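Need Cytochrome c-type biogenesis protein CcmF's 3D structure for a figure. Predict it.
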Amino acid sequence: MPIAIGRTAACAYNKGMITELGHFALILAFLVAIVQSVVPLVGAAKRWPGWMALAEPAANAQFLLTAFSFAALTYAFVTSDFSVELVVLNSHSLKPMLYKVSGVWGNHEGSMLLWVLILTLFGACASWFGGNLPPTLRARVLAVQSAIAVAFFAFIIFTSNPFLRLAMPPMDGQDLNPLLQDPGLAFHPPFLYLGYVGLSMTFSFAVAALIEGRVDAAWGRWVRPWTLAAWLFLTIGIALGSWWAYYELGWGGFWFWDPVENASFMPWLIAAALLHSAIVVEKREALKSWTILLAIMAFGFSLIGTFIVRSGVITSVHAFANDPERGVFILMILAVFMGGALTLYAARASVMEAKGIFSMVSRESALVMNNILLAVSCFVVFIGTIWPLVAELAMGRKLSVGAPFFNMAFTPFMVVLALLLPLGAIMPWKRARIARSFKPLIPALVLALSVMGLAWAIQTERTLLGPIGMFLGTWLVAGAAVDLWSRTGKGGFARLKRLPRADWGKAVSHAGVGIVFLGVSGLMAWEQEDIRVVQIGERFEIAGFTLSLDRVEEVEGANYLSTMGWVTIRKGDRVISVVNPEKRVYPVARMPTTEAGIDNGFLRDVYVVIGDEQAGGGYAVRSYYKPLANWIWGGSILMAFGGLLSLSDRRHRVAAGARKTKAVGVPAE
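Structure prediction for Cytochrome c-type biogenesis protein CcmF:
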């Protein structure tokens, strides 16, 4: 017995030591970040190579220390170290291992530590892959990136410390929010943060270029891969969140215009605009001022999203925290970095003089229109998201802005963007003729109109949403194919295989946007819903399918109790599948969740949700027929894959051939 007690005490001591070392590593990383944010910046101004060279080992040390700190917190969750307050509040000994690990970032403090880990990772990547950058620019980029890290290290250490200990640890924890105990949401935050925080690199490049007094084609090429990587991760993160909401919440929808959903969507829109704008800087040395502004605002909207999620000023099912002190701290970070960057932007206006001249009808003009539409769309989402807060502060009225506003205000811009995108992608640089550029797209237009006519002919309700969506989606997909084929010239299929990956990536991403359009319009126009009380053994129909509730049982899971139904789906006399909708209750958290039973198909989903047992017998059952639902996430995957293809193009990964010895403007001394 004394030996067992001794082993337990030793184990607890070791856990405590690892936690304390993680806390110490976090503080040490903070100190390294302070040094890195000052010394290389001074070195670049004075042209002192030794001081500039400090940036790279400091960035590596900062990342390694933060990684150790994050690993220590993960160890505390995995081993159920209930001497750590955060583990008590967000874990439980019976929780499956996947959710013990995901519980590390399933809360405010741990998610901010993940945020800083990714921030330092991007800084380290800039030191690993930035060997082709001019030494002064590299030093300034790493210094600005570290200055952002300083702010967030201070935020964590002084307001959101994940390593706080309890003097009297409880026997067990309070469990993680049951809504977060899902594979889709376990991986959603890391991808989203890779996108959010990845935009810090575009900010660092923009501020470094402004300090240096140099914005040219080389800068446009250098900033594109970082923007592309952030946009790619944001796309995956948003798609995972949408997919989770679809099957987990039981509402049957994929997007609800929730403030936290909007918080990730706004930087995605700005990042998409920045991607296209940086192309003009690289190819034509035009739109420099606008591109720098987008690079600053992209990260600015990431910070706005962080404020929305963590301040508690706007209510959301996704919100992490509602501490006003934390909200004020994030608001201060936003004010300092955005205010400082925009002040520098105004002071350096002279170095961003455009060189390239282009006509009103050209690819440059099409990209400008693309940027305007994306930026205005982002502004519309921002106004709709922040307006309830403004109304409450200014007028003392509690208002809510829902889907009807966003659908009416946002959709027209996306329709115009979809119409222009294929034509803009195929136009030549500098000067174009609309008739000549449009000629190759005539087959795509005919196909899109045919699909629109077919949709109109077969639909049961006379709404234009479905046919117009089918037209736009087909137009985008066919336009991407025409754009790709037009680049082969007379080489045909042989040349097609030798096209740069960036060309393939652009076409695949644009086609992915088209498929998302098809999925969204099909789902919203032709969805069918049925709500009823169903007795055991009873059959009912929806959209030509026959559903029967065969039985309902109480099932015990790893850390939950489930009321699980068995629903058979038939088409005529043929059994299509058996789905298991559930209503789960997590005893520790005392919170119910819904698990939809979904029969996935290429052209449709049959979606079933089971509710409470009714007083007169039977169960409340909601069923949906959802045409083209999976096309939404299939298109998102294609968009992300297109971004990955472009990122793998050597011309984007390595800024070879883009550097120019002659700077635009006079470098700052």
